[in-house]
Amino acid sequence: MSLETMISMLLEGSLTSLAIFALTLIGALPLGLVVAFGRMAKNPVIKGITWFYISIMRGTPLMLQLFVVYFGPYYLLGIQSSPDWRFTAVITAFIINYAAYFAEIYRGGIESIDRGQYEAAEVLGYSSLQTFFLIILPQVIKRILPSLTNEVITLIKDTSLAFVISVSEMFTVAKAIVAAQKTMTAFGIAALFYYVFNAIVSFIMGRIERVFDFYKED
């Protein structure tokens, strides 16, 4: 196999890795915020349910969650999975897993904001939604960006776990090439991809942090 063919195959697999990454962020970032609100709710039932959800997601391996989501419909409900279910199961498992981590990051950021800012906004006539989105959220984003960056970088590497239910992302393709060609070159190229992608994400997140530099900590 030529180097050009190998790179072409790995690039095709990388598109699946990028799709897993992007769809997970699109689903997990807003879901995490909803879960964070549930975790901070005054209602003990809602608070307890979200605490249990976060505890399970953070306390069990993502690999196990992938197996449960993929095989669960068949073994628990007797539903025969379609050919497209593998990829859907990967996205579902990744979203519910990362939403739990994002929820705790959001919660820490929101609870770090001084209560006096809410009271001041109320005095100025802001509604609850205006207070949160115009005053609180920008400060929360500023504070949680380093933690979010760490989780996003971890997500990039975790996309390789999709291989456990036979989704052909880049790492799966690299393993197949290495097994067939008896060479580590494919692993080296895959490692370079992950490194470059992480560097790009780190750069973008760094730029976003600069955007929020208008808010300075005392």
Relevant terms:
218 residues, mainly alpha, MetI-like fold, flat
Offer a concise description of the structure:
This protein is mainly α and 218 residues long. It has helices spanning 3-39, 44-59, 62-77, 85-111, 115-123, 128-158, 170-181, 185-211. The protein is built from eight helices and no strands.
Can you give a write-up of this model?
By secondary structure, the protein is mainly α. The protein has one domain: MetI-like fold (Orthogonal Bundle). The chain is 80% helix and 0% strand. The chain contains 8 helices and no strands. Helix 1 (3-39) packs across helix 4, helix 2 packs across helix 4 (85-111) and helix 3 (62-77) packs across helix 4 (85-111). The mean pLDDT is 90.
Topology:
Layout (H helix, E strand, L loop, with lengths): L2 H37 L4 H16 L2 H16 L7 H27 L3 H9 L4 H31 L11 H12 L3 H27 L7
Helix pairs in contact: 1-2, 1-4, 1-7, 1-8, 2-4, 3-4, 4-6, 5-6, 6-8, 7-8
